[in-house]
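Researcher: I'm preparing a figure for a lab meeting and need a structural model of a single chain. I don't have an experimental structure, so a prediction will have to do for now. The sequence is pasted below. Please return the structure as tokens so I can convert it later.
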Amino acid sequence: MTIRLLAAYGIYPANAIVTIDSGTEAGLIAAKMASANLTGGVVYVPPVLPNQFRTTSLVLDGAGNVLGLAGPNNTIITLGGGASITKPFTPVAPTLTAMANAISVAYTIPADGGNAITSAEFLGSDGATTALTGSPQTIAKTAGASITGRVRFRNSFDWSDFSPVSNSVQPTSGTAAPAVLSAAAITGTPQQGVPLAITGATFSGSPTPTVTRVIRMDGTQVASGTQSTGYTPLVGDVGKIPSVTDTASNGVGSAAVSTGAGAAVIAAAGGVTNNAIVSSSSFPTALLSCPAAIGCQIPHVASPEGDISNLVFTDQRTFINDSFVAFYSTANNTADSAWRKYVEYPIGTFTPVLYGGAAPMVIGNTKRTITSDPLAITIPAGATWFEHTLNLSGVTVDCAAIELPASSAALGTLHAKYATSGNAPAHQTAGTASTFYFGSSLITGTVAAANVKSHVILADSLGFGTGDVTGVGAKGSSGMIPRVFDKTGKPYAKFAKGGMGVQHFVALFASANGDLDPYFALLNASATHVANLYGVNDLRLNRTQTQLFADYATVNAKFSGKAMALTTLTPRTDSTDGWATVENQTQRNDGNWGALTSVNTGIRAGIAGITTVIETSDAASTARNSNTWPANSTTDGTHPNTARSAAVAAAITYVPA
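Model: Understood. Here is the structure written out token by token.
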């Protein structure tokens, strides 16, 4: 054995740690001149007497630094006459206690051998090694299996020997309801356009509980999901107080905890505009059966006012059908389906879009509006970039489709559908011969410029671009007014359906609409301006001027606080020569179309809530109130062709209020 002398004995000083014959050691301990407890002792190193030499070796650390000289019993004699260093002494056996699906390990730190202990570990009989950080320590283990273990400790010299084996215990299979260990917290000052800094709550419980999260603004829910769910405050959140509630559940019970009262959201920092519409998009208006392993490429142009970043994508399961109601099909959808979205910029470089921290986008019958996490990418102002959406479900899926007025090939755009290889996106160099595509209905983010204006276009077939089928505007738009926006590159979110009137739009929101309300809430949060192009179909369907103007007022209220623009209404005529001339055209008189001049006069005179009138009628007609198209402007008397659409857009100057 090895002992620590409590008094000098022979050549050995008091407090020396020595190893001598067992009989002498036992006698010294019995006489209380020594102890088997080595704590605080110093390993005895025989002195070198005059004219006596002893050979030894230098001891180096891993970096080649000299620690000292190699002494007896694996000690280090420090240069300069200091205390000797050795590995930690052998620890005593740990004590194990059984717990529910775990064990508790209690241990005693041994003498450090002259240098501080830096780490420790527990080696279980199951072969698993666990770093020890404090005694007692809980270590998860399988219930019902007996386990023992040993501990050891390390200093800068080496690991100690392993302790003797502990007692044997058997973890139980007991269960426990979740209990709150620490509350969730929002750190820092919440700011518009900056993701909330959330520290999640922690819980105990057996089995390990699943944690869900709800985020609220002034008590109103704005986001929910797993504990990784985050939220970026919008313009409309400024002045509101955010809160987070984390709830743990494990089948035995549940526990919830919320953040306390915190700071209100402050406005975005100067020099940038957060939650702006950064690239143009359209709401789905058709149903498309999308085969498995197919991708869709949609071209976009970034806002010209500043670099765009923190892109957020909103996708729909719902579309507006020909009856002007929100609709979704279940024919090829018995469950939610998985998709993946990428941003391609520059060409050939694909960045995955995440949803709740994961790449797949799950959308379907129960998740009909889904919004992505902000994408950490920056695209230069005015640059062209591409959105790629891939069907990963492995089956044909009915999806909401974005329509073009003609095929991408005919229009000269780079909208394309393509077979994917290994579920990977690929750049397409030509548009496909299709009018139906799938992609996001709204794209928002940060623009590196102050006070950027974001637009919504509400439209019928004229805003959709019917008739404008042989080309597009400078930024890829179809239709007279969208082409006006192309002149300056202003992006927009377009909600346009052929045949739709303002009366149909109002009817959509006569009561709560679970399919559209989430989308329009996002529009309201990001938009600053709304352009209302409705009216032609309302007169065609016999709506009176009083009814029409009342419906305009309802739309204004739907977008309360936004700058509202309204267009004058363009002609609808019949022709005896295919609209080759002006003189062979006559104004239609179906419905209440005879009120066209009166309606346009009333719009020009001003309607409460309208801040800007866009004079489309004058630009489209031969003269004010002629209600007639110039020669060769249309093929159906209602929709201008591409040449006339471009000419009308060129003639209109729209300056947002």
